[in-house]
Write the structure tokens for this entry.
Amino acid sequence: MRRLDTITGGADRLRIGSWRGDPSVALLSPTPGVVPSPHGLARALAEARRRGYRSVLTPALTTAEQHPFEAAGFTVHERLHLLRHDLRHVPEPKAAGSRQRRGRNRDVTRVLAVDALAFDRFWRFDANGLADARTATPHARFRVATVGPTVVGYHVTGRAGSLGYLQRLAVHPDHHGHGIGTALVGDSLDWCRRKGCTSVLVNTQEANRRALSLYEHLGFRAEPSGLAVLERPLDDGPAG
């Protein structure tokens, strides 16, 4: 499966590729901190049509990042909570009965199996989604939790400057309630603090009450405005 390709033009840099390997749905991702122009978005949508996609999704965007996409005809697919941790109190990165180690390429198949059980079909990762999460920031940490030889959870955490991002956290449902999620979050926060981060961001679905409860219990606090994944069909003619 192909990774995201970059579409450039002027100051615009947008990445495009299939959403979770679905050949009918494109993921259109802006460069963080760069607001795409109407012309850049129109060009990217035209490219998505040329490739045969029937609809387009964005990654989770802030309110400010959403505006140009809304002007191009995108609407909200799903809203997400955005939470921040100030790194003052970091949980112990250990759980009785489990161990953590560096994630390796040979772990990918087992990690994706855990991910598929932890998330519904829309949100679960394929190999490309996991690879994109691991390379989304200049620096990243990929850790797996094991019980014996079995991978039962993992996290991917990124760092850009003084800001950390808990990109992904998943625990096998059979191992919920044993402190594995807490230990993985603790490892993520501890790594960010040691690397000089001043805070860490994480997002989660509004309907994912288990994840929200865990994050709030561990010291994350909701930001004033959340995030949203936007979508746009491609059967309604050119944008703009």
